[in-house]
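Lab notebook, bench 4. Still working through the backlog of constructs that have no structural model yet. Next entry is a single chain of 202 residues. Request: give me the structure tokens for it.
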Amino acid sequence: MRTTAFFAFMALLSAGCGGTAQKSPSGNIRAEVFAGKEGLYYTVTHDGRTVIDTSAMGVTVDGTELFRDAALRPAGTRKIDETYSVTGRKAVSEGRCNEYLFDVTHRPSGYKYRLQTRLYDDGFAYRFVLPGDGTRTVNGEAAQWRPPHQSRVWFAERNSGWKLLTYAGEWISTTADSLHIVSRQGPVQTMPLLYRPPPTNT
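Model written out:
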């Protein structure tokens, strides 16, 4: 049986483009994806300001880290303008974005798969499409979303056993680079985390 596995990530933005000129329909969101010896990476800007700094992306399948020593090649683009039914405040939602396709080759094994990115006017998304036969095992992923280190982050602090079991707590803030040391209970924080990038890139 032929199967296709995928890993997806979506970053919604409330607030540089590489050689592939990835941008949203209005051009306010821009992204770059690139390959290095240690993995695959991406960055995202909003109105010229970095909102996601260089971050890793990748997936491990059947014990193989397919993002390490990989070659990346542009494979096409398309515009998407669609509507679909949803349950909530409104019955129909709109999806307008620019999609970019990349062929990825894992050099050590020769395995080929595809990276898809989508840029909306309010967000960026990516996913990997992994062709194969039979049963496959996704062992893990290398997914990061790194805001600029001087970004301000708000989170609900609750110094009790309920910390990771509830969204309640005292909302406090710190800088993104100190988030892992600010809590007496260790580096893990409950969701959601709210970020505000620094006023200008430094």
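Notes after review: The radius of gyration is 19 Å. The mean pLDDT is 87. Flag for follow-up if needed.
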